[in-house]
Structures are given as C-alpha cells and as structure tokens.
Amino acid sequence: MVLIEGARIRLNRWQQAAVAVGSAVGALLDPRRADLIAALGETTGKPAFERVLERMNCSPEGRAVLLERPRVISSKVGHAWDLPENTFGAAYAKFMGSRNFSPDDRPPVRFMDTDELAYVAMRAREVHDFWHTLFGLPTNLIGESALKVIEFQQMYLPMCMLSVIGGTSRFNERQRKLFFRQYFPWAIRAGMQCTDLTCVYYERHFDEDLEDVRRKWGIIPAPAATKQNVA
C-alpha cells in the first residue's frame, strides 16, 4: 500500500472557508497556481470525494484501486514510454512528453480528514492527464475548461465548475463562440455517456489499444479544431 506523502492539516469550518475563499481569489488572479486550485478543490470538495469513495467501493475495479493505491508518478508509469504506439499507455506518454510534463508535478493533498479520502483526492488529481489523453483534449484554456465540465459531471466537485467560470471569463470572443458552440455541448454529452471514470484502474489498461479502451469506456473524443481557434 502506498501512502500519500506530505503533512495533512486539519481545519475547522471557519478555517476551511478562509482557505477556500483565499484559494479561489488567488486562483482567479493566477490560474497557473496549481497549489491554490488544489487547496480550493480539497476545502470545498469533501462531500464530492466521499461520494466518489462510495462509488469506488461499489465497483470491483474501484475497490482494487483503493486496495492497491497505485500512484501516477514517474517510478510507477515510466514503462508507458516503451509501449507500442497504438496503446493507451503510449498515447499518455506522448501527451506528457510533447508538453514536457512530469507526472511528479502534482501538489500533495493537505486538507483531507482521512488517509482514504486523501488518496481519493490525490487519485482524482493524478488521473487528470489520463482524461486529457482519452478525450483528446489540448491543455490550452479551451481544452482545460472543457475537461473541467466533464470532471464536474463525473465528480460534482465545486472547484470544477468554478474553474469553468474562471476560464471562460478569460476567453476572447472567438474562443467564447467556439467553446459554447462546440466544446461545451460536446463535454456535456461526453461526460454523460462515458463510464464512471473515477472507478477505472487505468494502469492495468496501458497495453490495450487506445481506440479499444475508448469504446469500452464510452469515450467520445473532442471535436477537431485548429490550433489558431483554440489558442
């Protein structure tokens, strides 16, 4: 069993509210602050994470994730870079490598009450790039906003909807039209049609064909758009 690293901080309700408000303001001012976005998700998302935990316990694959507690870190997923090009694992490795991302860059969980909830929150954070890969979404403002719509449908985290509101407020007119005409309706449909993605043991499917796992999990890839339109 892998423990979640980093000291956790217990907060009373007033302290949670203060951290949530401060994190929300800070994240709106600087959306690149992953630590603030993480703190906002934790301090406002406990009921949502509890529901995710309940669903995982009701799913055979979800229970396996909770039992084994896999981590999406370099030492655990590095073999994805050696898999055949058509596989889900290779697609994930290409997604990460083309953007010079590291799976080790996720901030630690600090504000969850129990080890089990802390793991669920960490897991939700770490599978984010798997979802980018599966749905074929870019990491620009439109892509991240669209994925937050799907994440909200899957987990009902308030932070996801706040992120959509904050992200769309920074769109230019062309981006706004593209998002609400194409990406938002697609994200609603994609989030409703796919399986419960919080219960998937992704690492067990790395060597499977990408299109096969998309079909198996009911994934609708994102609509095609030019880089100029989504930048």
UniProtKB/TrEMBL annotation:
<dbReference type="Pfam" id="PF05019">
    <property type="entry name" value="Coq4"/>
</dbReference>
<feature type="binding site">
    <location>
        <position position="129"/>
    </location>
    <ligand>
        <name>Zn(2+)</name>
    </ligand>
</feature>
<keyword id="KW-0999">Mitochondrion inner membrane</keyword>
<comment type="similarity">
    <text>Belongs to the COQ4 family.</text>
</comment>
<comment type="pathway">
    <text>Cofactor biosynthesis; ubiquinone biosynthesis.</text>
</comment>
<dbReference type="InterPro" id="IPR007715">
    <property type="entry name" value="Coq4"/>
</dbReference>
<feature type="binding site">
    <location>
        <position position="128"/>
    </location>
    <ligand>
        <name>Zn(2+)</name>
    </ligand>
</feature>
<protein>
    <recommendedName>
        <fullName>Ubiquinone biosynthesis protein COQ4 homolog, mitochondrial</fullName>
        <ecNumber>4.1.1.130</ecNumber>
    </recommendedName>
</protein>
<comment type="subunit">
    <text>Component of a multi-subunit COQ enzyme complex.</text>
</comment>
<keyword id="KW-0472">Membrane</keyword>
<keyword id="KW-0479">Metal-binding</keyword>
<keyword id="KW-0830">Ubiquinone</keyword>
<keyword id="KW-0456">Lyase</keyword>
<dbReference type="GO" id="GO:0120539">
    <property type="term" value="F:4-hydroxy-3-methoxy-5-polyprenylbenzoate decarboxylase activity"/>
</dbReference>
<dbReference type="GO" id="GO:0008270">
    <property type="term" value="F:zinc ion binding"/>
</dbReference>
<dbReference type="GO" id="GO:0031314">
    <property type="term" value="C:extrinsic component of mitochondrial inner membrane"/>
</dbReference>
<comment type="function">
    <text>Lyase that catalyzes the C1-decarboxylation of 4-hydroxy-3-methoxy-5-(all-trans-polyprenyl)benzoic acid into 2-methoxy-6-(all-trans-polyprenyl)phenol during ubiquinone biosynthesis.</text>
</comment>
<feature type="binding site">
    <location>
        <position position="144"/>
    </location>
    <ligand>
        <name>Zn(2+)</name>
    </ligand>
</feature>
<keyword id="KW-0496">Mitochondrion</keyword>
<feature type="binding site">
    <location>
        <position position="132"/>
    </location>
    <ligand>
        <name>Zn(2+)</name>
    </ligand>
</feature>
<keyword id="KW-0862">Zinc</keyword>
<keyword id="KW-0831">Ubiquinone biosynthesis</keyword>
<dbReference type="InterPro" id="IPR027540">
    <property type="entry name" value="Coq4_euk"/>
</dbReference>
